[in-house]
Design brief:
Blueprint (H helix, E strand, L loop, with lengths): L5 E5 L7 H16 L4 E5 L11 H17 L8 E4 L5 H10 L4 H5 L2 H7 L7 H16 L4 E4 L4 H18 L7 E4 L34 H9 L17 H14 L3 H7 L5 H27 L2 H30 L2
Parallel strand pairs: 1-2, 2-3, 4-5
Helix pairs in contact: 2-11, 3-6, 6-7, 8-11, 9-11
The protein binds adenosine-5'-diphosphate and sodium ion (NA).
Length: 329
C-alpha cells in the first residue's frame, strides 16, 4: 500500500572511511541509480547531543555533503539535505515523544553505552532515537538502510508508527531496516581484523579514509595485520586479515572473491598488499578528486543543500500538517 521510499541519516562526522563507503553509501547510490526514491539526511541535530565544537561541526557538515556527492549521490535523482534546515524534524520529535515511554528509551543499548561516558546525561541523548523516528516518518520511508547497531532504533520507529496509526488513524508505513554491514560488505579494521573498520577505532592506521592520499593508503595497507602464512587464500574464520584484504580487493574491482584469489596465486602477502593498495587507490582517486573539487566551491555546495532542503521541506510540511490536524493542534 505504501510506495517504496528509502531514507538514510548520516551524522556529519567529516570524512567517511572505506567501510562506510563500501558497506553503506555505495549501496545508497546503487538504489538511487536503480531509480528508487532515496532521501539522504545529514543529521546535524543528532551531532549536538554530546558536547561538540561548533566551527568543526559546521565544517563537517560541508565535508559530509561534499563526500556524499563525490560518492555518487546525485541531487537531481535523490534528496540530499541537512536536518536542521527542515524545522519539522524537531517539531515532530516533540509530538512523537508523547507516544513512547521513558523506560523504553532507557533500555536502548546505544543510550546505555553512550550515557556511561558522560556524568550528566543530556536529555537530547536520551530522546535521540525519537528524533531518528521523526526523521524517518516525516518522509514516510519504508526502507531504512542502517548498521546492525541501529536495529533497536528502527524497532522504536516501527513502534511509534504503529502507536500513532492506532491512536490517530493510518498515516505512516511501518518501516523496514535494511542491515548494511552484512558479511560480504563488512570491512574489517586493518589493525585488528576481529573488529570492523570504524571511526571510533583509536589507531588512525586501522581505517582508510576516502580522502587519504595514495601514499597514505599504501602505508596503511602495507602495515595491515595479516598472519604468518604467506600465500593468499580466502578464509575469514581462520585468516581474517588476509581475507579482509581479498574482500576489499573484490569490492573495489567488482570481481568475484574466487577470481581475485586465483589471480593472486603466485604472490606472497607483501606483493599482494601492493596490488590491493593499487586497486583501492585507483577506485578512490576520482572520489577524492571530487571531494576536493566540491570543498573548493562552497557556494555551490550551499546552493545544492538548499535545493535539497526545499524538496525535503515540502514533504515534511505536508506530513506535519496532516499530523497536527489529526492531533487537534
Ligand atoms: P562507524 O563504526 O565508523 O562509527 P557508523 O556506525 O556511523 O560507522 O556506520 C555508518 C554506516 O556505515 C552504517 O550504515 C554501517 O552499516 C556502515 N559501516 C560502518 N562501518 C562499516 C564497516 N566496517 N564495514 C561495512 N559497513 C560499515
Ligand atoms: Na558506530
Amino acid at each position: 500500500r505504501w510506495p517504496r521510499k528509502v531514507f538514510s541519516g548520516v551524522q556529519p562526522t567529516g570524512s567517511l572511511h572505506l567501510g562506510n563507503y563500501l558497506g553503506a553509501v555505495r549501496k545508497w547510490v546503487e538504489m538511487q541509480n536503480a531509480r528508487e526514491d532515496v532521501t539522504i539526511c545529514i543529521v546535524d541535530l543528532h551531532s549536538i547531543t554530546l558536547p561538540h565544537n561548533p566551527p568543526v561541526l559546521r565544517e563537517n557538515i560541508f565535508t559530509m555533503a561534499a563526500t556524499l556527492l563525490s560518492c555518487g549521490i546525485d541531487p537531481a535523482k535523490s534528496t540530499l539535505f541537512v536536518q536542521s534546515s527542515v524545522p519539522e524534524h524537531a517539531e515532530f520529535n516533540w509530538i512523537l515523544s508523547s507516544l513512547t515511554t521513558m523506560p523504553r528509551l532507557a533500555q536502548l543499548p546505544q543510550f546505555r553505552e553512550k550515557s556511561r561516558l558522560v556524568k550528566d546525561v543530556p536529555l537530547g541523548l536520551y530522546v535521540y532515537p525519537v528524533l531518528q523516528a521523526a526523521d524517518i516518518m516525516l518522509y514516510k520511508a519504508t526502507q531504512v538502510p542502517v548498521g546492525a547497531d541501529q536495529l533497536q532504533h528502527i524497532q522504536l520507529a516501527q513502534h511509534l508508527a504503529r502507536s500513532y496509526n492506532t491512536r490517530y488513524g493510518e498515516t505512516f508505513p511501518v518501516c523496514q531496516a535494511l542491515i548494511e554491514d552484512g558479511n560480504a560488505s563488512r570491512v574489517l579494521s586493518l589493525r585488528d581484523p576481529s573488529k570492523k573498520m570504524s571511526k571510533s577505532e583509536a589507531n588512525p592506521k586501522a581505517t582508510i579514509n576516502l580522502c587519504d592520499p595514495p601514499d597514505v593508503i599504501v602505508q596503511k595497507i602495507k602495515k595491515a595485520v595479516t598472519d604468518f602464512t604467506s600465500d593468499i587464500t580466502f578464509n575469514p574464520g581462520k585468516r581474517p586479515g588476509v581475507s579482509n584484504l581479498v574482500n576489499i580487493h573484490a569490492l573495489v574491482t567488482g570481481q568475484p572473491i574466487k577470481s581475485v584469489v586465483d589471480e593472486a596465486s603466485t604472490l606472497d602477502t607483501a606483493k599482494y598488499k601492493e596490488r590491493v593498495a593499487d586497486a583501492v587507490i585507483e577506485h578512490l582517486r576520482p572520489i577524492r578528486e571530487q571531494i576536493l573539487h566540491h570543498m573548493g566551491k562552497r557556494s555551490e555546495l550551499i546552493y545544492l543543500l538548499e535545493v535539497g532542503a526545499e524538496k525535503a521541506r515540502q514533504q515534511a510540511q505536508h506530513t506535519l500538517s496532516d499530523v497536527k490536524q489529526r492531533l487537534g493542534l
